[in-house]
Amino acid sequence: LKMSWFWFYLPLHLLMAACLCHSIKAPTTSSQQSFKTNLFNFYHSLILADGKETTIHLLKDIPKRYYFVLEEGRALAPFSITVTPCDVPIEWSIFVHKASASFLGKPARGDHDTHEASKSQKAPSMVSTIFNYKGNSVETYMGMSSHSALYMLEFLSTERDTHITVYLTTDTTSGHLYPELPMDPRIDVTGIGHTTVTLTWKHSPSVLQHRENIQYCLLVNEKHNYKSLCAAETAIRSSGMKLPPTLALSLSPYLLEPQQVMILSKSELSIINKASSGEVRQICTGTKNTYTVPNLSPSTQYYFDVFVVNLLTNASAAYTGTFARTLEEPEPKVMELKDGKVTQIVLDGKNQKFYSLRYQARHKKIQFTFQLCRGQVRVHITKNGKAVALENISGLRYFSLKGKLLDTYLVQLRSTEETNSSVKVQVSPHFHKPLFPLLPESLKIKSFSKLRTCNSVTIAWLGTQEESKYCVYKKRIEEDQVWMELQSADRCSGPESRHKSEKVLCKYFYDINLQRAVTTETIQGLDAGTLYLFDVYLFGPSGIPVRYHSKVVKTRKKC
């Protein structure tokens, strides 16, 4: 440190008085520059607060200095300093000026980074360096002084602008700001699956003592481990992600909105931040020290960090991070499709797995037909390994494709909902007679409110230019059954699944002019003030029905 140590321990009010009263002799040109430099350094050094965590912003290559004083009063005055780098490695040192050389001090814990402490100081020297550290680990220095002493901390970042947190305390008997780590702070990987990793770690002594104010938070990402929660916050911000307020507040779950970027279940809080560089996931598990991380990608390396967090002070301590690679996903079973044959597939919504179908073309032109029966399904079709279609389907969907003889098509289906989905699939040469009937522009059923009576309702639906058979069915339901009936309806099922008493009528209908291809029907013999579910089935030449969207209508209570 290139400065006169006179300015290190001269009290600020004496310096100001000396400057104002001109009691110092005018220096020469070289000493005048040194005077100005030292004066600048003193004014830009700050007193470090005792018992509080201080955030310090560092500019690249510009050292920043903080002071604190240990006064006489006890035989031995203990103190500790904890420095947490929040991004890049930094250098920091502790200097002391004492009237006596009686001093004891040691680093609380070390890392693979470099640190050095002087075990003794020369008697003639008034100022000595008692500790020096370079790295990005959380480092704590504990010392003890037998006389009044003035200390200076100097911090320097040589890579880029950054920030750190510093905690100084001279009260080592009233507890810890930071939660304690166990003797063995490692995270153990106890299970690895295709999409899951199970972790366990030893309990923090702080959890056992202050269970209601301490919790564990787990951070998962695909890049590297983090040595502090402060470093994790900085990384998320710098990657362009939107930092949830909970991470800035040590992942406290009490300030989150349930519908925001989190999952809250069984007292576990999970937040997912997505960016182009990857995904960072934070999961707070309360005081549970075992957790299975779900929804991971197969054959991917993940890094896991556990932080024990004090919810009252927002201070945290980091376990030693670990990493694991998920297992490779086994090759999915592939089902062969045959010309003209209809296959119905039920897709598991919870596991979100792909169902694969393969077809080898015997004609240059082919047509895939998908009829969505329930839920929501994503379709991905490839030809000889190249994608030709990718779409979420609803209702009835055709894909007409052209290629060469013996081209291999692979169809992958996946439910996009958490509930199970179902879909019918058929492939056939393009010139074959279509399996499904010609469809109208809309499959909605319309009801006329003004034509409702206490015992009848009037409904209408669109037809086509092709003469087809239409059958109408009704079902009496209760108010609390409406949502379930509409959500659970199997749109692929035909009238054979209905009770005979529910059938109202069947009729044939078509019109060459699509503008007039509309038909109406008045259903009589209904009960007053009652809800009814109406369905219309359209039958084509092949006899396979297409179900219109169900319509719920309530008859008038009084007429």
Radius of gyration: 37 Å
**Portion in helices:** under 10%
Going by CATH, the architecture of the largest domain would be: Sandwich
Mean pLDDT: 79
> Which geometry do the CA atoms define?
elongated
How many β strands by DSSP? 38
> What profile does the largest beta sheet have?
7 strands, antiparallel
- Let me know the CATH homologous superfamily of the largest domain: Immunoglobulins
The level 1 CATH classification of the largest domain is Mainly Beta
Q: Which spans of ≥5 residues are poorly predicted at pLDDT below 50?
A: 1-29, 100-104, 114-125, 242-268
Number of domain modules: 4
Terminal residue distance: 97 Å
Q: Approximately what portion of the residues adopt beta-strand conformation?
A: 35-45%
Helical stretch count?
7
CATH fold type of the largest domain = Immunoglobulin-like
Structural class estimated from helices and strands: mainly beta
GO cellular component, one term: extracellular region
Keywords: Glycoprotein, Neurogenesis, Repeat, Secreted, Signal
Signal peptide: 1-21
Main location: secreted
Produce the secondary structure layout:
Layout: H1 6-9, H2 12-21, H3 29-43, E1 46-47, E2 53-58, E3 64-70, E4 77-85, E5 90-98, E6 103-107, E7 114-116, E8 127-135, E9 139-145, E10 149-156, E11 162-169, E12 187-192, E13 197-201, H4 205-209, E14 214-221, H5 229-238, H6 245-248, E15 262-265, E16 268-275, E17 278-286, E18 290-293, E19 301-310, E20 316-318, E21 322-325, E22 334-336, E23 343-347, E24 355-360, E25 365-374, E26 377-383, E27 386-393, E28 396-402, E29 408-415, E30 421-429, E31 446-447, E32 457-462, E33 468-477, H7 482-488, E34 503-509, E35 518-523, E36 531-539, E37 545-547, E38 551-554
Parallel strand pairs: 1-3, 22-24
Antiparallel strand pairs: 2-11, 3-10, 4-9, 4-11, 5-8, 5-10, 6-9, 7-8, 12-13, 13-18, 14-17, 14-19, 15-16, 16-17, 19-20, 19-21, 23-30, 24-29, 25-28, 25-30, 26-27, 26-29, 31-32, 32-35, 33-34, 33-36, 36-37, 36-38
Signal peptide: 1-21
Keywords: Glycoprotein, Neurogenesis, Repeat, Secreted, Signal
GO cellular component, one term: extracellular region
